[in-house]
Amino acid sequence: MAKMWAGRSAGGTAKAADDFNSSIAVDGRMYEEDILGSLAHAEMLAGCGVISYAEFGEIAEGLKGILADIKEGRLPLDPDAEDVHMFVEAELTSRIGDAGRKLHTARSRNDQVATDMRLYLRKESGEVISLIKELMRAVLSQAKATKDYILPGYTHLQRAQPVVFAHHLLAYAMMLARDAGRISDAVRRMNVSPLGSCALAGTTYDTDRIFTAKKLGFDGVCLNSMDGVSDRDFCVELISAFALVMTHLSRFAEEVVLWTSSEFGFAELDDAYTTGSSIMPQKKNSDMAELVRGKTGRVYGDLMAMLTVLKGLPLAYNKDMQEDKECVFDALDTVKACLGIFAPMIATMRPNKENMYRAAGKGFINATDLADYLVGKGIPFRTAYKTVGEIVAYGIKTDKTLEELSLEEYKKFSDLFDEDLYDAISLASCVRRRTSEGGTGAASVERQIKFVEGFVK
């Protein structure tokens, strides 16, 4: 294929250099955005009198035909093309002749690719948010079903205080809600049009950038043409948001791995989201969760790669920026794949109420409530804390839980203990009395559920 930029150089580039320079294998996925941007640009050129409306009609018909042919598989992308922009323009010119050669008037591939990237990532970001909400719906469904499933809450991976499983799950729904918000914020900042910035300095033609921005659904235009073609902040922001999504999925995945282990036994995954062993027939491995956990590092790497590509670039466009697409597309594909598998995995997970409650009965996780009981009798909290610490040590020594100690044993530590202490330290009571906003009490959990329901509508 002849180079669109031929003229300055007398000789051709080496085949190896052409292959090294080519980006169509990566940017080819943006063919629809490239064509939509070209349609808007051509219509603007006609409206401004730069080309005739007859020429615009030819260009529009040709571009729409190319789009249909690519979508329906009649026109494969040419791997020898330098990039998707050159492929579309060359194909258009071969179909309609000189009118096609006028399309690139008053623009550059620099503003063209920046426009394509924003259009493509805006669309794909919407899909990521939809996938996040789908996972939130799965969490919500499980939370509604497990509002009375009591299990140990952990700090330092040590049993700490009793919570209901719904409360634990809803913590991830809150993380996911923030993730969706971050992506939306990044899209809002991204949604300005660089089209018309040209190579870096604008154009001598009388063009209308506001027209093309509105036509393509942008909120406005980049105010500085050099920034318009060289800005990739939106790529960094999106990959950063995707990295945080993966952080949250990885934490969730780690818990799923723990919950479904024989040691915990808090839940079982559906067979559809597990694998077995090639040598140990008894195994049921949480491989999907483990893969999500592993793929998190991949997205972190994409973020670091993107930052490194940009860190030393002078204004305006530099070829280094061709590397932006591999970073952001890989991060995008990875987060979509992980969200796509995580939602049904969580939706079909089977929590084990009995095992959760059995674990909650160990580890003295109602010790804080016992201290609060003494505070209610007028003892300062720090004094009560020390007394209960001594009782816990006694329970460990005698191999008894707090519920199993007799009232006589309690009175060895304080005369303020009475029969009502057993109600105070029952696991159900411990959960029920946590009425503070955001806590694990029933009313708080219901408010959290209502929030998530509203968010995913």
Explained architecture:
This protein has helices at residues 15-21, 24-27, 31-47, 53-71, 84-96, 98-101, 109-145, 165-190, 209-215, 225-230, 233-259, 287-310, 324-347, 353-360, 367-376, 381-398, 407-411, 421-425, 427-432, 442-456; strands at 150-155, 158-164, 267-268, 350-351. A two-stranded antiparallel ribbon has the order 1-2. It has a two-stranded antiparallel ribbon with strand order 3-4. The protein is 62% helix and 4% strand. It contains 20 helices and 4 strands. The protein folds into 3 domains: 20-107, Fumarase/aspartase (N-terminal domain) (Fumarase C, Chain B, domain 1, Orthogonal Bundle); 110-155 and 165-195 and 223-358, Fumarase C, Chain A, domain 2, CATH 1.20.200.10; 362-456, Ribonucleotide Reductase Protein R1, domain 1, CATH 1.10.40. It is elongated.
Number of domains: 3
Strand-and-helix sequence, N→C?
Answer: HHHHHHHEEHHHHEHHEHHHHHHH
**In terms of structural class, how would the helical and strand content be classed?**
mainly alpha
Percent of residues in helices comes to 55-70%
